[in-house]
Amino acid sequence: MTKKIFYLLLFGAAISMIACNKKLDISPENTLVDKDVFATSSGAEQALMEGYYNLFGSATQYIAYTFGDFSTTTLNHAINYDAYVKGTALPTDYSVVGMWTEYFQTVNIANNIIDKIPRFGQFEQAKEDQFIAEAKFIRAYAYLDLLKLYGDGALTGKMDGLGLPLQLTPFQGYKTGQVIPRSTNGDIYNSIVKDLTEAAAILPEKQANDLNTRSRATKGGANALLARCYLYMGKFKEAGDAAKAVLDETGTYSIVNNLLQLFPANPSGAAQNLTAEHILAFPVSQMVGTSTSVSNSVGSTYYYKRAFWINKNFMSEFESGDLRVSQLMFKGDQIYNTDRLNDYTTFKFNNQNSRDNVPVIRLAEVMLVRSEALARIQGVNAESITLLNTIRTRSLPNATPLTSADFANANALIEKILQQRKFELAFEGFYRYDLIRTGKPLQSPDLPEAKKVLPIPQSEIDISNGLIKQNTGYAP
């Protein structure tokens, strides 16, 4: 599929959501329509594009992308975000309900693709298999995000804690009695691992063109997400192995030397290319229609500093001369928000109309996953330090590389790797979950463990007649 068709389909999914949802409904009266949609490669691919577009919305709307940062000491936030930081968000909260709903809509689109292509598909088998594998990747991504937001103890090794309803078939509706309880965190993780392992075995290393390679699921993307999943599970050998599978792919991914190529200035909102470091990104700057452009729902909240602005104590943690400060932090709006004119924000989202591309998996993350995993298994080792130096020296080109002599023990090396994750992935939604999984305090240092997840939406509890249980920190 050409680049033009890809993005027309992607944008078209937004403006025809209702119509598409009707086509994807499993009700018997729509079976003929389902046959029409999934019989051909182009129809099935349209359904798949809706899945990608819905994943983009799920991962960037509400607080899904920003929660990982504004609830930590890297950012200051406006008062209306206090409830999420202090663990007092209500089960009826707009974002709490909205994120749950959006992600499960994405899961359902993926389930329809996985279910209906084998039933109705009449096109090339290899293409059918690829689309199903891409849908499994989408489903796994949605479930992993849901788990870190709502899974009770999912990031602290509580595998028997309540996770999520594990819906792996098209949802037939609440009136059918098809409401299911929450499965354990362990069951959800196992399902994610299964989806990603199966997807990685089928997906190509590259899609039809470079833009598609970096904005659709690939073998490298599946292994990279698998590495993240295993890291959150505390399965470090598996995390390291999955990361290595990505790093072993030659010719597809590489670290970009210039940070401003990775995060370019984009005052006009023009189309920006993705780079060899992007394993998966939402190419917002490329997503345009005949009358409007798509917003990433993140950029303006940073640019205008009405919602978030950088904690200057965080800026002072970097080594002197670090380009991630001088190049990737700036003052943003200097006209409208008079209270924040002297505060800094992230240059990673520098377009005032939220037209920046949104990175979700970068090679830098994968390298740091591999580095951390090896350090936890082997202690101080050469490969971990080499990977660490690759990330550090990009932003500190004149720095003396670290050696094994700089680390008294494995913990010292691990802490340095975690510090580089904090610096490198800042404002990309990771830090909160790194703090939780390593037992470190969030912005509210006394927040109890049971409050480090969001409440389950009250509507889900009510409509299931209590079959779906509330998280322990919010139970009446």
Tell me the number of structural domains. 1
> With helices defined by DSSP (H or I, 4 residues minimum), what is the helix count?
21
Order of helices and strands: HHHHHEHHHEEHHHHHEHEHHEEEHHHHH
* Coarse morphology: globular
- The beta-strand count equals 8
Q: What proportion strand?
A: 5-15%
Our measurement of the CA-to-CA distance between the termini, rounded to an integer number of angstroms, reads 52 Å
CATH second-level architecture = Alpha Horseshoe
| Low-pLDDT runs | 1-30
CATH fold-type name = Serine Threonine Protein Phosphatase 5, Tetratricopeptide repeat
Largest sheet: 2 strands, antiparallel
Q: Which strand order does the major sheet show?
A: 1-5
**What is the C-alpha radius of gyration, as a whole number of Å?**
22 Å
CATH C-level label:
Mainly Alpha
Helix content: 40-55%
Average of pLDDT: 92
Structural class computed from helices and strand pairing: mainly alpha
Protein model, in words:
It holds the Pfam family SusD_RagB. Belongs to the SusD family. The protein is mainly alpha-helical. The protein has a single domain, classed as Alpha Horseshoe (Serine Threonine Protein Phosphatase 5, Tetratricopeptide repeat). Helix content is 49%, strand content 6%. The chain contains 21 helices and eight strands. The longest helix has 27 residues. The N terminus is likely disordered.
